[in-house]
């Protein structure tokens, strides 16, 4: 395009700043410095160039001076590309309309003029430019039509694709209209509230619309209703925080209501308040003037202060947990840890779609975002979806919370069924505790947990684990299903059904947590744990307070041993554990960890030990070994690990030299030809040379790897290592050298 000029257009200063900062941070990639237009004169100066340049501006800078109906042409060039972000709001208005002309001093009507929308003025200025629009909420109405302005869709990336790709999470909808008082007059006004709220400046009777809005604002902002609203949000928010760590945003109808809501919040929770903007759990994000009065003025923020608040909101560790906004942060604001949006403002169309997208960002194990509706925007959501669907998008913008509750109930039934399955460990469990199962039944009675003293609760958790481990694929299935249950539960809280089963879920999560901790990931990427730790916090009440700080050894009823040496006393204690399946899981975890530690320094020996461990487990899974026999085999592997640690002492080699010695002795014929003493000398020399030649980036530099390969080959040839065996030896030694080089450079 012969060095085109790129013009990036938004309709809000904060979005303009956000995009400009993103581009400015990528100037090495762009190979030029982007420029942000300060005013209309500066914009004209930036666009009246022969070629090149990346310019940022708000569309409002294309408003003609002196109320003219035509904007002056700035450039007739064809290689100007206008990129409109959020291309659903102010990119329309080609048709003429009659506007009043008022006297600046008296404000009286003195005439009329012809006016157009910003889209027409921008095309006056740049008639031959190419226009590209980006939007998550295209519109195909009669007067505002995205494809009409920008052409047909180049690419559609819809809700269903984004969720499937893991780019966003699902959004759930909960109506709490009945939780706060809103009289019939208010409901009727909300139902009638339509195009007057649109921001296209084409309202036919502005005074009438303003009067209706003022009346509605008075109803929504009624003192008693604000009190009820604040109480409900505080309760709702705190109950969600117990199981789902994250943040919330409240959308108020006006700045007055926002200020009043804040006042009620801090009356209920004084500890949330702090005059310092860098502290406190709740803030109002808005601008204000002295004419608004002291209550609103106290919440006035500068551009830099709002930027600082945004950083606080985006930081999961920051104590700021709730913000109250009117218009700010409803578009272009990304805080992945934001999981709940409380809507107390009439919104519709693209404004509503943009707002609800604030909570669909992916964050850790966030199962979904939640929209809490206090004004009945469900109908408007469906209307907004029809525009979205007409544009080729698929997938629902929100799912009713009842679906999450239904899923929670379904998964709760699935998990409970584990305790109704017959376990091969039942006989041993009953021998320890006769009341563990219902009379004459194989159904495990975990409900005892909620009735016994604290000291007995851990025993029931251990018995529950033993029962699960006695089922076919019990551990893997249980961990998976409890994880899914926990995710649905986190979305459903504080629904009454979720509150009803919260203690059961806390118990199930406690059992799962113990099982997950027994899973050890394989050092070679195989046979790793199946557990999936969620970010959902357990509801730990008095029934589970003693469980919170226990580790896997306490769960197994044992003191934490010195596992680095796997002492005979410890192995004997494991062998004698009454819960044999727990003993097996504990040994598997410990041996996996021990082998993983050794895999960082000794490739050959750790691989051999891992093959022994996986072989024994496979024979057990194929029912070739009993639980007692597999424990015996794992204890023998533990002893093998201890013997391997003593190999250096026996050979007179350091730990590093032993690793290369093991790499060289994998070839039996080489051992026979060279003998033990010569292999030890080769190992010593190779260790010294690897240490001397290791560099931080050697593993990614081919020249460094090639040099090391030559050094190893010359050393083997020098000591008479069989030539026909050298290729395999060099490959193994190089892999070992890679491990050691990383260790040497880090050390």
Written account of the structure:
The chain is an alpha/beta fold and 747 residues long. Helices cover 50% and strands 9% of the residues. The protein contains 31 helices and 14 strands. The strands form three sheets. Strands 10-11-9-12-13-8-14 form a seven-stranded parallel sheet, with helices on both faces. Strands 2-3-1-4-7 form a five-stranded parallel sheet, with helices on both faces. Strands 5-6 form a two-stranded antiparallel ribbon. Helix 15 packs antiparallel against helix 18 (474-492) and helix 27 packs across helix 29. Residues 194-204 and 520-565 have low confidence and may be disordered.
Task: Provide the descriptors you would attach to this structure in a database record.
single chain; 50% helix; 14 strands; alpha/beta; 5-stranded parallel β-sheet; 7-stranded parallel β-sheet; 747 residues
Question: In short, what is this structure?
Answer:
With 747 residues, the protein is α/β, with parallel strands linked by helices.
Question: Nearest-angstrom radius of gyration?
Answer: 34 Å
Structural class: alpha/beta
Number of helices: 31
Strand order of the largest sheet: 10-11-9-12-13-8-14
**Termini gap:** 53 Å
The helicity comes to: 40-55%
Proportion of residues in β-strands: 5-15%
Tell me how many strands there are.
14
> What profile does the largest beta sheet have?
7 strands, parallel
Low-confidence stretches: 194-204, 520-565
- Give the overall form: flat
pLDDT averaged over residues: 77
């Amino acid at each position: 395009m012969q060095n085109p000029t790129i013009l990036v257009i938004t309709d809000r200063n904060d979005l303009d700043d956000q995009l400009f900062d993103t581009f400015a941070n990528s100037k090495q990639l762009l190979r030029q410095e982007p420029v942000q237009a300060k005013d209309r004169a500066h914009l004209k100066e930036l666009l009246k160039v022969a070629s090149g340049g990346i310019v940022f501006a708000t569309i409002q800078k294309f408003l003609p001076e002196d109320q003219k109906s035509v904007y002056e042409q700035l450039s007739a060039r064809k290689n100007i590309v206008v990129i409109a972000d959020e291309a659903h709001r102010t990119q329309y208005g080609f048709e003429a309309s009659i506007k009043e002309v008022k006297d600046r001093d008296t404000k009286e009507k003195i005439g009329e003029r012809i006016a157009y929308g910003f889209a027409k003025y921008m095309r006056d200025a740049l008639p031959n430019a190419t226009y590209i629009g980006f939007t998550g909420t295209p519109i195909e109405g009669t007067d505002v039509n995205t494809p009409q302005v920008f052409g047909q869709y180049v690419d559609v990336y819809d809700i269903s694709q984004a969720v499937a790709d893991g780019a966003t999470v699902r959004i759930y909808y909960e109506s709490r209209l009945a939780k706060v008082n809103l009289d019939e007059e208010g409901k009727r006004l909300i139902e009638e509230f339509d195009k007057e709220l649109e921001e296209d400046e084409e309202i036919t009777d502005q005074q009438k619309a303003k009067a209706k809005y003022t009346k509605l604002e008075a109803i929504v902002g009624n003192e008693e209703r604000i009190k009820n609203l604040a109480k409900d949000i505080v309760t709702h928010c705190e109950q969600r925080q117990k199981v789902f760590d994250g943040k919330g945003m409240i959308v108020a109808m006006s700045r007055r209501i926002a200020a009043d809501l804040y006042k009620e919040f801090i009356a209920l929770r004084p500890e949330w308040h702090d005059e310092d903007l860098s502290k406190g759990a709740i803030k109002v994000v808005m601008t204000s003037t002295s004419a608004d009065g002291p209550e609103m003025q106290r919440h006035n923020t500068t551009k830099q202060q709002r930027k600082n608040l945004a950083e606080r909101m985006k930081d999961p560790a920051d104590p700021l947990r709730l913000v109250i906004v009117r218009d700010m942060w409803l578009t272009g604001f990304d805080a992945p840890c934001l999981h709940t949006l409380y809507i107390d403002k009439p919104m519709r169309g693209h404004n509503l779609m943009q707002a609800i997208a604030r909570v669909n960002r992916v964050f850790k194990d966030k199962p979904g975002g939640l929209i809490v509706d206090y004004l009945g925007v469900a109908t408007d959501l469906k209307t907004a979806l029809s525009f979205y669907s007409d544009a080729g998008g698929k997938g629902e913008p929100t799912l009713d919370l009842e679906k999450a509750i239904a899923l929670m109930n379904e998964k709760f039934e699935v998990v409970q069924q584990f305790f109704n399955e017959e376990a091969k460990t039942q006989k041993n469990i009953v021998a320890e505790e006769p009341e563990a199962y219902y009379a004459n039944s194989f159904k495990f009675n975990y409900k005892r947990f909620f009735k016994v003293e604290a000291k007995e609760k851990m025993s029931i958790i251990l018995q529950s684990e033993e029962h699960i481990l006695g089922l076919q694929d019990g551990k893997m299935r249980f961990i998976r299903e409890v994880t899914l249950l926990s995710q649905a539960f986190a979305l459903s809280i504080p629904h009454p059904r979720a509150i009803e089963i919260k203690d059961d879920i806390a118990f199930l999560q406690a059992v799962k947590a113990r099982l997950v901790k027994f899973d050890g990931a394989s050092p070679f990427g195989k046979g790793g744990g199946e557990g999936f730790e969620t970010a959902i916090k357990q509801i730990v009440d008095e029934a589970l307070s003693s469980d919170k700080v226990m580790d896997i050894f306490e769960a197994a009823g044992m003191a934490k041993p010195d596992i680095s040496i796997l002492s005979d006393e410890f192995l004997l204690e494991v062998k004698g554990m009454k819960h044999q399946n727990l003993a097996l899981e504990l040994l598997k975890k410990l041996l996996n960890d021990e082998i993983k530690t050794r895999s960082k320094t000794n490739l050959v020996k750790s691989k051999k030990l891992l093959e022994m461990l996986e072989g024994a487990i496979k024979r057990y899974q194929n029912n070739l070994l009993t639980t007692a026999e597999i424990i015996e085999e794992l204890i023998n592997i533990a002893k093998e690990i201890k013997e391997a640690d003593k190999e250096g002492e026996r050979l007179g080699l350091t730990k590093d030299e032993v690793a290369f010695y093991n790499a060289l002795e994998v070839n039996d014929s080489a051992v026979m030809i060279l003998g033990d003493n010569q292999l030890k000398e080769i190992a010593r020399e190779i260790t010294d040379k690897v240490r001397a030649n290791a560099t931080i980036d050697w593993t990614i530099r081919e020249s460094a790897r090639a040099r090391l390969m030559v050094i190893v080959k010359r050393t083997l040839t020098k000591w008479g290592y069989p030539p026909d065996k050298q290729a395999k030896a060099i490959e193994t030694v190089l892999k070992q050298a890679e491990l050691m080089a990383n260790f040497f450079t880090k050390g």
